[in-house]
Task: inverse folding
């Protein structure tokens, strides 16, 4: 039974920005207009009214909604659908339909399943991918040293176990090592290169830790 067929399940499409509102046109569920990367004023009231939120937006918009669900401790009882409006590492990882109509139908009426949720030590989440470039420092994936010195690029993404990290070293002869674990932590010289789910961090960082959260995300994926 789908969410639209079951009157006990209440859902809304959170249309983030102009692109999200265009993508949500024709949705069977009610549409709630929101800004890009919506926060507490826009999302928290919906968590008391709906059991399913379908986010029409970018990976950054989706992450902003998940942060509110996590902070309100509603991960166990709110399912999340996703209608990406731009190329999406998160949608690719979850194998969501590329066709917008199919993606909207699935997000509104499909079944949810538990998927690992990766968060960080600043209270944010990671759904698609994070990337740093030209960093100097040290990083660990669980107990294993990922690099000690310089790295041309570091990419972090969720996987089925928790966190996947790819470290690329070398200026001319590039070589990449892949690590899997529950957590990935980096300490480095100040860098402003961090981009998380398509959103620049906006300030220099010297350390960051990503790790699998204790609760999973209820994702609608079929």
Result:
């Amino acid at each position: 039974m789908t969410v639209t067929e079951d009157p006990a399940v209440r859902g809304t499409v959170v249309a983030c920005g102009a692109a999200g509102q265009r993508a949500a046109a024709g949705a069977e569920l009610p549409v709630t207009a929101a800004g890009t990367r919506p926060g507490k004023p826009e999302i928290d009231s919906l968590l008391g009214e709906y059991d399913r939120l379908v986010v029409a937006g970018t990976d950054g918009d989706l992450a902003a909604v998940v942060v509110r669900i996590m902070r309100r401790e509603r991960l166990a009882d709110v399912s999340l659908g996703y209608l990406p409006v731009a190329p999406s590492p998160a949608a690719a990882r979850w194998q969501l339909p590329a066709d917008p109509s199919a993606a909207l139908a699935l997000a509104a009426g499909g079944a949810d399943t538990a998927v690992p949720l990766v968060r960080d030590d600043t209270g944010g989440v990671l759904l698609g991918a994070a990337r740093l470039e030209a960093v100097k420092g040290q990083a660990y994936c669980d107990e294993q040293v990922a690099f000690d010195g310089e790295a041309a690029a570091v990419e972090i993404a969720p996987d089925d176990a928790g966190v996947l990290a790819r470290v690329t070293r070398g200026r001319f002869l590039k070589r990449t090592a892949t690590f899997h674990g529950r957590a990935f932590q980096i300490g480095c010289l100040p860098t402003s290169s961090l981009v998380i789910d398509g959103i620049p961090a906006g300030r220099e960082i010297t350390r960051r830790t990503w790790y699998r959260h204790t609760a999973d995300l209820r994702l609608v994926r079929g």
Summary: Residues 125-212 form one domain.
